[in-house]
C-alpha cells in the first residue's frame, strides 16, 4: 500500500494483511498499509516510513496475539499518536468486517487511544479483562504434554513470566529443564538456551537423546533421521560460556 500514500497524508491505519488494507481503503478511503511480514512483526527498518503520520490506528487482527503485537508496536511508534482496534466479534479484521457489512468508519472512530504508558483507566482495561475471561485457556499458557503435575502447579508456560529451578549439583536440574524446554519446543514455542556451564554440543546431545527417546550411540544409523527432525525445532543456543565481562 505504500505507493498510494501521499506526502500530505497525516493519518494512517496499519494492518497485518494486504487484503485488510484493500478492504479499509475501499470502505473508508483512509490511507492504509499492510505490514510485509504479517501482524506480529514490525521491522525497525520500516519506522522511518511512518514518521510523517500524526495519528496511526493499529487494526492488526482478531486474536490475542495480534492485540499484544498492536500494544507493542504502539510503544515503538509513540503512544501519543497511536490508537488500537480491540479484537472482538463486533470488530473482526477489516476484510471480515467488510464482508459482514459492518461500518468500518465507525469501528475506526471507536479505536482506543494507546494513551500514556504509565497511566491507564479501567475503560482501557475493560476489553482486555473480558478477553482474558473469554480466552481462559489461552491466558493460562501452553500446557506441557508430558508433565500434567507441572500444569497443576504453574498452569502452563506463560508469556512474561520467569520460573527459577533450584537444587544441589547433580540433582537433575539440567536434565529436567531440557525435558521441560523440549516439551514446549515440540509444540512450537521458540526456545533459546543460555547455558553458561554445559557446552552446547553436550546440551544438544542430551536433548537429542531425550527427543529420540533412545540411546543413539548404540544405533548410529538412526542419527541422521532423528537429527533432521530435531533440526526443524525452533531451538537456538547462545555461544556465551563461563565468565563474561560486563560489555
Automatic annotation (TrEMBL):
SUPFAM superfamilies: P-loop containing nucleoside triphosphate hydrolases. GO terms for molecular function: 5'-3' DNA helicase activity; ATP binding; single-stranded DNA binding. It comes from the Eukaryota. InterPro entries: DNA_helicase_DnaB-like_C, P-loop_NTPase, TOPRIM_DnaG/twinkle, Twinkle-like. One of its GO terms (biological process) is mitochondrial DNA replication. Pfam families: AAA_25. Residues 136-247 form the SF4 helicase domain. One of its GO terms (cellular component) is mitochondrion. This is SF4 helicase domain-containing protein. It comes from Merops nubicus (Northern carmine bee-eater). The lineage of its organism: Eukaryota, Metazoa, Chordata, Craniata, Vertebrata.
